[in-house]
Amino acid sequence: MSVQNLNTFDPFADEGDPLSNTQEVGSQQNYIHIRIQQRNGRKTLTTLQGLPKEYDAKKLLKAFKKEFACNGTLVDDEEAGQVIQLQGDQRLKISTFLVEEGIPKNSIKVHGF
Question: Which residues does the annotated region (Disordered) include (predicted)?
Answer without folding.
Answer: 1-26
